[in-house]
Amino acid sequence: MTILSIDPAVSKKIAYAMFVDEQLQGYNKVDHISEIDDVINTALDIDLVVTEDMYLGNNVRTLKQLEREVGKIIYLCEIYEIEYRLIAPVTWKSHHGLLKKPKELEEKLQIEIIRQETGEEITDVDIRAAILIGLCQIEKARWEQYN
User: Fold this and answer.
1) How many separate domains does the chain show?
2) For residue 87, what is the DSSP state?
3) What phi, psi does 81 have (nearest 5°)?
């Protein structure tokens, strides 16, 4: 199974990670959603796209902009007939034991989780989020398979 995991953004680059058979195969950042279209077109057959769902923080304007970006991702999935899932930040952070941790500790834990799961040491916060979103989906699917 091939999973494309995306951490959407509006004021910075969009991070993504690609998993094949539960193994991290690559990650990068792009400037625009149109480049995610290129990733989909050049990748192996993608079975699932998982992206961070939006939540209302302090800025409604940012929420609306992010909702549009997530909508574009969903639209691409519908065009290419790829299944997609949205994962709330609270869900993937809770899954990895990161919820309500001080920022500095959360950052260290993210790096350690990714190192243990993939052998990679990722310093970029957005790429870490994309990887952790994907890992959350993979582990959730494993759990559902056996229950």
Assistant:
1) 1
2) E
3) 55, 50
Of 141, 28, 145, 144, nearest to 85 by C-alpha is: 141
pLDDT of residue 105: 95
- Asked if 3 and 134 count as a contact pair (C-beta separation under 8 A), the reply is yes
The DSSP element (H or E) to which 124 belongs, if any, is none
Tokens of 84: 């997609």
Per-residue confidence at 56, pLDDT binned at 50, 70, 90? Answer: low
CATH number of the domain that residue 55 is part of = 3.30.420.10
Residue from 137, 126, 135, 136 nearest 15 by CA: 126
Q: Which amino acid is at 138?
A: I
pLDDT band at 58 (very low <50, low <70, confident <90, very high): low
Question: Which pairing describes strands 14-20 and 2-7: parallel, antiparallel, or unpaired?
Answer: antiparallel
Q: Which amino acid is present at 8?
A: P
Q: How far apart are CA 56 and CA 45, in angstroms?
A: 33
